[in-house]
Amino acid sequence: MARRLSNSIGIDDAPFDRRHRGDVAIVGVVFTRTRLDGVMTGKLRRDGANATHAIAELVERSPFAAHAQVLLLGGITFAGFNVADIHALRERLSTPVLVLARRRPRLAVIREALLDKVPGGARKWALIEKAGPMEACAGLFVQRAGLELDQAAQVIRELTIHGKLPEPVRIAHLIAGGYAEGVSRGRA
């Protein structure tokens, strides 16, 4: 039997107006199994290059960092096209990283947008490619660093109560929406 990864941190970004430039809020939530134990907030730059650093600092400055056994991300891009390097996060935090998506991303569309319209797009596209393919896993699509596919499926199954997303990402999404807009909305 594989070791249970019961202490988790879920990270998601807040919604923002497409005309917005500057910083966008990110929310981290800490769970022990399916119990919410903490909430953290931070910022990263819209379409910037600091997602990896901002996420790592959010986790490192929290009192929960030493207990985190898995980091769950609500996507690999934050605040538009601020791409997280999941392998660098894995290395820096010594914690497995799991990127979650409900649908398989349209990578050709993302690649074209990054290379044609986003400053530093080639570097950002390289980070997405470095993360590896999006794999079907327990009803979602995942990218992973430091986890086998069967471990990722176990994490998803054990942490999912409502809907398809594990609670840490679902709750981070809801809190981020409420924080930015005064009320959460949309699927979580």
TrEMBL record:
<dbReference type="Pfam" id="PF01949">
    <property type="entry name" value="Endo_dU"/>
</dbReference>
<protein>
    <submittedName>
        <fullName>Uncharacterized protein</fullName>
    </submittedName>
</protein>
<dbReference type="InterPro" id="IPR002802">
    <property type="entry name" value="Endo_dU"/>
</dbReference>
